[in-house]
Structure formats: structure tokens, C-alpha cells
């Protein structure tokens, strides 16, 4: 059993354990800190920055910052909500996200995050990038128009599947998900049963032929907002 | 190139198929095969037992690697703001006329490629360019003609008639036309140096005593961040690890910084000595100098200095007869990525990976290179540490100010008559420095490069030191008539180009800021854009993951603070109900290109407005 670490989030005392991140400890205490690149079971990454909180007044990513005794964490404030909205809107405008005809709609964490944060229109101009769609794999589609560069597929492939199907290629605005074959995803050893095939928070890596198996209206975030599971205490039990 | 695969296999073999040396392998393949082609990725992955995409990840991160063949002579013209203000456009036009190609292209004969590159550390002798790793400074249009003619005929870089520069720039192993422009030598970095004196002194002390001495000197990191060096050494010494490392950050990529280049040219021995002393102090036996790819022309010379130090017993085993103390240094060459100046990105690069910053904590003192405790100091900091050990902390604190002891080496460029390198005690005011460098009618000074801040005359009475105006060395002077927003926009271009793209605010936010600032330059800004710049700038500053992103909005946030009228006077207030940023001609451009004809209403013919 690791040493207990007590700190506060928005004034509420949280008991964490040494070695946990703020995000992990918060989830176990049924406190939702909005996040996209963080995923249970994968190593912390810290790229989307949506989980930015103030730790003793300093901005930090909750998903990579370890808990510390006596730390004062601010999470649910108007300023942070605005900051997170701005970041989520950046993710929208730098890709091509057409929710109304995306098969991930309702199960998409980016879309659900926008609803939760109350985003109605983008403050940033759309960039309309030219991105590729790779349908070479028989069972999995890699659709980079919807990618938010969270690296969940990269980490899931390495950490859970013991493979190295995905990695980032290029720098800066050219950064995108590359696959481990010159011929596209079809040339890799990716299996539809791999964890990497279901780690994607958006509609960028999707399984073929099951896109509408669950009808719109009955999907994960259709009735309850993202974060509800954590807030209802299900994360703590699970 | 058909031999990409065999070249790759051979080079991997030269590095014992060690994936940790992937940077050197890629540099070698690029140099020998002219590119890192898809078949090279396959071959390298096979030889190093890595995934292909992992190799591709590193190969596509750095500007100096290319997937398709480049010309035999890759001409990289520096497009830093100082070069832009010193006639870069004329050089651009001259090259296009001589070669008949655009920047980004290669001549059909495969001889020349034209590219832009950010600051190459030659701002005091702009415009400047690189031809492969050869530096050409103070480029004129006549020189462009001569360079192209000579290389076309001889196909040999050696045939270029370049006047050799001063000091060690004309050393047989350097033979470069670069000039030091070392205008003022101080007591620390550029004072006379005798190899081994500081080291001898260090080895007569206990390691913990050395740390005490450096702490007592109040030496702070010279790269810009100003972290107390002694404390860094103490943390690293205390950290558990079977190996420990000393790293020297010689990746000065901050626009307008070139002081490390002069230190590397004139005082590399002192720098290596500082690293060796640091190794003794923290219990490390391995050191790495991360040398920016733009300074590759110094590599043979630096290797020679290292070889001489080994021969003199200043590196290797039982250094200076001290039984059991061993230390050696290797030089890791970079390949064109500003972000690698960020210490954890630098470590990723040393490990042979793409130069992504690492997650902190853990800090390098706990887990650095290869996850081992690592000290990373700037070139100048290593030099200062050696001198402090040699002359004592009191000697050092007698110079500078209370918070910032010692001297600082400044790189001054821009609108002044004596651009160059100045080693001056901390505490000198901007005003005083401007007198030293021969600047008049100065309207703004950029302190600390693109990531620093632009200040106006009302702040020229402030001193350079960690408490007031901190700088890693870059001081850019802008005189009367310069467009300060255009300069800030050039800095934003730089950050967009150099962001690693790992985190959202830096990857996307810098582009959004660049675009919005651009509206002020094209007369399309409205007053709400000021608020947008302020808020989005703050988001980028607050939420970014590393120092690059956290400072990438500074060109805008700083000028909004100090030069707000520059923005306000450009805001369009013509009473129109239309968005000034909306250009109907631009909006229909894609549609009209698809339709194959121009818009009846907004076409260039009808509209009569130039595109």
C-alpha cells in the first residue's frame, strides 16, 4: 500500500496515494477533470492540455502531475472552463470534424467534451487541412481528418498490444499519425481485436462494418454528458 | 538514390547497430545518400531492430533530413528577422534568377536545392546562408552569382573563394568565413585560458566542496532560464543512478543568439574543462555536447580539441593523475530543430529520437539522458563554472549584481554599428549597452530572442539581470522606421515552424496567433482582434507543455503591453458592417479554381483588385 497523500480540489479534500497523478486521484474521488488524451490503463501523456488545472496557483496538466501533500488544486473555475473550451475549439478547427455525418457521433469524446463545455460556435477560424484517409486495412479505417493527435493509439499499441503499429510522423503542424508500413495500415500487424483499434477518442481509428450497429440516440454520450461515470462514482468502483 | 539501403546498412554497422545513435545514423545516410528514402527507413529499422515508424518518426522531425533526394548543394538561406532587415529579399531574388527555381525546389540537374532556414547564429553578419555545412556570411547578390557559377563548374565546395574569418575561424580545421566580432572580452569566458588549471584545482577538492563553491558563487544558468547551477549539481549528485551524465547545451537556436558559436570557436577548452569538473562534482564519467546542426562546420575542430585534451590527460582515465576519476565527452550533432534547445527535447534527440520534450516531473536531475541523472548546462555556464573553481566564488560575486553574479555574454545584432559579441558584467542597462554597440534612434530592443520580450525606450534604463531583463544572450536592436508588428509576425512564423506539435496550444495556437496578427499587417483587423490575441496568447502561454510553447505567444503579449498603439492605429474603423477580415475574392478562389472560371461578381477581372 502506497503512502496516503491529502490535497484539495476546489476546496474539497481528496485522499490520493503516492505515485498517482492528480487526474487519477480526482477520478477515484468522483471528481471529473475534463481530459482527452488521458486514458485509463495507458501511461500519462499530457498533449491535449484540456486537463489543465491550477496547482498552488500554477497551471499544470492534471494527467501528468503527481499528487503532492497539501497541494491546492483549482479545477472547476470559469477561467479554466474558458481555457479548456479554447483548447477544444483549437482541436476542432485544426482538423476536419463533421459530427453530423461521422459514424462516431454520440460516442465521440471530442464531441461530448464540446457539449459538456457548452461550446456552440468556434472562436477560432477553421483551418480546413488536407489530410488522408487510409482504408487499406481490411477491418480498421484510419481517418486522419478527425485525428486530435492524442497518441492513445500509439500508447495502446505499444503498452497493451506489445506492438508498434502507430507513431507520430512529422513536426509541428505537419505532425500526424504514421503507421508501421510504407503501404498503409493494411501492411501492419494491426488486428481488429487490438486495444489500439478501440483506443481512439474520436472517429479517427474505427472498426469497419459496425459504424451504426448502435443507433444514434442510444449511444454513450447521447443521454448523459462525458464525465458522468466518474462523477457518479463508477470510476472509483471500477 | 539506389544505394540508400546499402549505405544505411553500412552506417548502422559503423555505430554497432545501436538505436541510441539513430541521429548520427540518419545524419550519415542523409550526407552520403542525399536523403533518407523509404528504403533507408526499412533498412535502418531492420539493422537496429526497431519499428519502421519509429525510425520515420525521428527522420521526419528534423529539418535537415529529407525523404526525397535534395540537390548536391543544399543552399539554406537564413530567413531570420535580422536577415530580412538586411536585404534577404535581394538574395532571394538573385538565387531565383541564377537557378531558375523557387525556394523549396531542386534544379533539374540535381545540383542545387534552395531552402529557408531559421536563425543560423550569424545575425551579426547577415544575410547569411549555409551551403551544406559551409557558412557564407554577408552575402551579396554578386556573391550569389559567383557561388552558383563556381559550384556549377567545379561541383566542389572547396573551390568557393571565401575570405577566412578572424581568430580560430581560420584554423586549418575550421577554415570558415565566419567572423567572431568579439567586441568586448570579460574576465570570465573570454579571459586567457590555460588548459588544466581549473581542473587541477577541482581535483584537489572533494566533490561536495566543488558544489559548495559553485553554490556560493550564485552562478545561474546562462541559457536564459537562470536556474542555480550549484543546486542543479547537488540534485544530480544526490539522485540515484548507476550512470550519470553531463550534457552541454550547444544548440543555441534562439533568434539573434550567436554567443555560444564564438565561445565554441575561441574557448572550447574552457567549456570542456567545465564539463569535466561538473562530472567530477556529481560523479559522472560521460559527457555529451549537443551541437546544433548549423554549427557542423566546427565539428572537426572541436573533435580535435577533445583529442588533444585526451592526449594531455585532461580527459579519459585517471585524469591529471587522479586515480579512479574518468570522464570523456562525445559530440552529438543536431539536425535543425529549435525545440531541441529545450533541455528535455535535447535529451530525446541525444537518445536518437524525435526531439519531443519529455514530461516533467521527473526532471533531468532525477531522470535525464537514458533515464539517468543528468546535468544540463549551457555552453557559457560550463565555462563560468570552470572559472569559479579556478578563481573562487568571491571573485565571481564581485562582478555583476546581487541576484546575477558574474558576466554575461551578449549577442547583439540589428540596427547598430558594432554588432557582435560582448562579455559584460550583469547589471548593465539597455541604454548603456546600446552605447557600446553604436546604436542610435533605437525604437525597440528585443531582449532574449523571439521567446523574449520587445521593450521600448521607456524601459531602456532597466538592467540586464535575472530580476529585470533576463536574456540567454540575444539582444536585437531595431531603429527608426522598423515595423514592430511585422517583426513580431516574423517571430510568430518562427514558432509555427519550430513547434514540435506535441501539445494543442503550441501546435494550433501559434498558427491562430500568427494568422490573427497577420490581419493587422494587411489592414483586416478589427478591435475585437485585440481581445482575441490577448486571450488566445494567454491560453498558449498558460496551457503549453514546455518552455517553447509557454513563451511562443510572447511576441504578441509583449507588444500588446509595450506597443499597443502599433496595433490600435491599424484597426479598421470605416463604419462598415462587413468583417474586414472577410475577403470575398479569397473565399471564392477555391470554388472558381474547381469551376475553371472566375466568379461573375468577385473575379479579379470584374473586381479589378489585384490578388
Layout of helices and strands:
The complex is a heterodimer of chains A (238) and B (611).
Chain A: E1 4-9, E2 12-17, H1 22-28, E3 52-55, E4 58-61, E5 72-74, H2 78-94, H3 109-117, E6 133-134, E7 140-143, H4 152-160, E8 166-169, E9 176-179, E10 205-207, H5 220-223, H6 228-231, H7 234-237
Parallel strand pairs in A: 1-5
Antiparallel strand pairs in A: 1-2, 3-4, 3-5, 6-7, 7-10, 8-9
Helix pairs in contact in A: 2-3
Chain B: H1 4-14, H2 22-33, H3 38-48, H4 52-59, E1 73-78, H5 81-85, H6 88-99, E2 112-117, E3 129-131, E4 134-136, H7 141-154, E5 182-184, H8 197-203, H9 207-216, H10 229-238, E6 245-250, H11 259-266, H12 268-282, E7 286-291, H13 299-311, E8 328-333, H14 343-350, E9 374-378, H15 379-391, H16 393-397, E10 407-414, E11 420-425, H17 430-437, E12 442-447, E13 453-455, E14 474-479, H18 484-498, H19 504-521, H20 528-543, H21 547-552, H22 554-562, H23 564-568, H24 584-587, H25 589-595, H26 604-607
Parallel strand pairs in B: 1-2, 5-11, 6-7, 6-9, 7-8, 10-14
Antiparallel strand pairs in B: 1-3, 3-4, 10-11, 12-13, 12-14
Helix pairs in contact in B: 1-2, 1-3, 3-4, 6-7, 8-12, 8-15, 9-10, 9-12, 12-15, 18-19, 19-20, 20-22
